[in-house]
């Protein structure tokens, strides 16, 4: 059993008492609304520079329009970054990337259950308290079969969650109960070794039922269609152009928030545009590509490096009507490419590592790095063997010749370079014609979900700090398993890792998953992603996170000019 108990409620608030506190909160909500109108009028055109010390504001860039700000449905990194600034779960990650209290001020986790005590000064942006029932409603919402949440599986550790999601139990059977407004009791489906880590993830965020129902199916679609409980609120959202976040005056932990405004004033995935915006002092942070790394060095900027924990790979479509459901074709594709060439000759950025496993290099086991204890199968390019497998596949599929295979990819400079590399490699080594299907981010996600691809350039970042966040990605029930791979032997290993408390047993299960992924060529690993980036010299406190919102500006602050 583990127990945490930290409260940041101020002495003044404690002395006011709950009734007086609610009155103060209501007044604060009113004042916030008036201030917001004034601020929007005064700065409608946005800051003239990336750092605006006078208004305590920064301007940032996001790579795409957030596809989904309904936390029960969100799946992508951009939406997760925004939600991480404007929402908060039971727990959160602090400035040291450690789990810390969020809405919960204390908690106790047993082998079969957990109890979270909510702080009395956790408020929604309309001044009403965040209650235990708001978590119960949010979790039931994510599990509702007709909601079709692709992240419903992450709630399966809660008693009856999976049965509810599959429609065999009613929502009321969920093992999450509000004992009172501030006490949330959770019963587990099975023993779990990492439940506290799950509660910081966005699917576990609260949603207030009356507000959700008042939006009539448009919850999360616009700034006024969300109710906030995080350090910031969305003051305005001009779709496709900008998203403006302002400090939430009702957030319980004002002491850790230093900025008054985070203005996502630009939305683009073009790296050259991003670099020019940084160079012109329009944004505070930009990532670097091989093409603009030289320019950054010439500018004598301080370059930061960060392994963001993400694995990128070619995901293959295992649906029966797709040619890539053939194992010999998948083996041919795997043996015909070389991730070392991709990383060192095509990507050419510091920090990237060639992909060798479903489990990235940062993941820990009980004795050190998981991959040190359980090395992945060795791989080297073997064109002759690849062509033998291709011939077997052609005979098994009864083809006179292979038709074009569709490679689904993003429509941006980085994706274009990599997709053209794979197109050339598979043409040269296998004689296969690869048709590149470039799509904007939201449309690519839609096509991935509907299975409109043979191969898709995909990536996965960790949702929580445990190997299972990668391991269960290819479980048959996981809707993020876009290629619909299904293998009872693999599912069994996932269940072992879910249920076991013994670290050695869990690591052995992950090792078996790693082996099955390799033998069945479920995916073709490309690289563990490294990030090279630059930040404005007057902005400090930005946190890069392997788990959680990344980049995280919620602790950032502006320093005086030198």
Short description:
The chain has helices at residues 11-42, 77-86, 132-143, 161-165, 195-198, 209-214, 271-279, 290-298, 327-335, 339-347, 370-373, 383-397, 413-430, 441-450, 468-471, 488-499, 503-519, and strands spanning 2-5, 51-52, 57-62, 91-93, 99-101, 104-109, 113-118, 176-180, 183-187, 232-238, 242-247, 261-267, 285-287, 304-316, 353-354, 405-410, 434-439, 455-460, 523-535, 539-540, 557-558. Helix 9 runs antiparallel to helix 12 (383-397). The chain has 562 residues and is α+β, with helices and mostly antiparallel strands.
- Per CATH, the class of the largest domain reads Alpha Beta
Number of domains: 2
Please name the CATH topology of the largest domain.
Dipeptide-binding Protein, domain 3
The tally of beta strands, per DSSP, is 21
What is the share of helical residues?
25-40%
Tell me the fraction of residues in β-strands, as a range. 15-25%
Q: Let me know the largest β-sheet.
A: 7 strands, mixed
Q: Count the helices. How many? A: 17
Overall body shape? globular
Q: Quote the average pLDDT.
A: 90
- Uncertain residue segments: 1-47
**Straight-line distance between termini:** 50 Å
């Amino acid at each position: 059993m583990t127990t945490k108990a930290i409260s940041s409620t101020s002495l003044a608030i404690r002395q006011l008492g709950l009734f007086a506190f609610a009155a103060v909160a209501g007044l604060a909500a009113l004042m916030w609304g008036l201030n917001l109108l004034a601020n929007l009028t005064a700065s409608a055109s946005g800051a003239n520079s990336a750092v605006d010390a006078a208004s305590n504001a920064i301007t940032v860039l996001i790579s795409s329009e957030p596809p989904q700000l309904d936390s029960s449905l969100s799946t992508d990194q951009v939406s997760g970054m925004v939600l991480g600034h404007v929402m908060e779960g039971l727990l959160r990650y602090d400035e040291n990337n450690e789990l810390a209290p969020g809405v919960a001020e204390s908690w106790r986790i047993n082998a079969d259950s957990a109890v979270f005590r909510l702080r009395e000064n956790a408020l929604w942006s309309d001044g009403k308290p965040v209650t235990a029932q708001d978590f119960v409603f949010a979790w039931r919402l994510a599990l509702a079969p007709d909601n079709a949440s692709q992240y419903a599986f992450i709630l399966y550790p809660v008693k009856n969650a999976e049965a509810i999601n599959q429609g065999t139990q009613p929502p009321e059977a969920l093992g999450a109960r509000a004992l009172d407004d501030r006490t949330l009791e959770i019963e587990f489906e099975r023993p779990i070794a990492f439940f506290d880590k799950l509660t910081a993830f966005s699917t576990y965020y609260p949603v207030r039922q009356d507000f959700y129902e008042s939006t009539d199916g448009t919850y999360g679609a616009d700034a006024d269609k969300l109710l906030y409980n995080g350090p910031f609120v969305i003051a305005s959202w001009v779709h496709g152009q900008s998203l403006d976040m302002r400090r939430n005056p009702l957030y319980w932990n004002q002491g850790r928030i230093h900025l008054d405004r985070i203005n996502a004033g630009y939305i683009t995935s073009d790296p050259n545009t991003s670099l020019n915006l940084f160079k012109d002092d329009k944004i505070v942070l930009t990532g670097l590509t091989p093409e603009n790394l030289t320019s950054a060095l010439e500018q004598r900027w301080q370059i930061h490096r960060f392994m963001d924990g993400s694995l990128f790979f070619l995901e293959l479509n295992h649906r029966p009507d797709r040619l890539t459901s053939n194992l010999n074709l998948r083996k041919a594709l795997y043996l015909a490419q070389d991730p070392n060439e991709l990383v060192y000759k095509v990507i050419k950025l510091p920090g990237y590592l060639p992909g060798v496993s479903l489990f990235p290099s940062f993941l820990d086991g009980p004795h050190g790095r998981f991959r040190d204890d359980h090395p992945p199968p060795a791989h080297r390019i073997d064109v002759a063997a690849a062509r033998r497998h291709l011939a077997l596949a052609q005979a098994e599929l009864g083809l006179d010749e292979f038709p074009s295979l569709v490679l689904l990819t993003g429509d941006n400079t980085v994706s274009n370079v990599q997709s053209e590399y794979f197109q050339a490699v598979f043409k040269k080594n296998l004689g296969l014609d690869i048709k590149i299907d470039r799509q904007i981010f939201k449309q690519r996600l839609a096509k991935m979900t509907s299975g409109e691809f043979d191969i898709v350039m995909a990536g996965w970042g960790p949702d929580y700090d445990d190997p299972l966040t990668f391991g269960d990605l290819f479980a048959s029930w996981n809707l993020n398993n876009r290629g619909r791979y299904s293998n009872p032997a693999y599912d069994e290993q996932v269940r072992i890792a879910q249920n076991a408390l013994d670290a050695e047993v869990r690591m052995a299960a992950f090792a078996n998953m790693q082996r099955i992924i390799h033998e069945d060529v479920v995916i073709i690993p490309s690289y563990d992603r490294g990030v090279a980036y630059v930040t404005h010299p007057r902005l400090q406190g930005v946190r890069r996170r392997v788990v959680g919102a990344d980049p995280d500006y919620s602790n950032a602050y502006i320093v005086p000019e030198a």
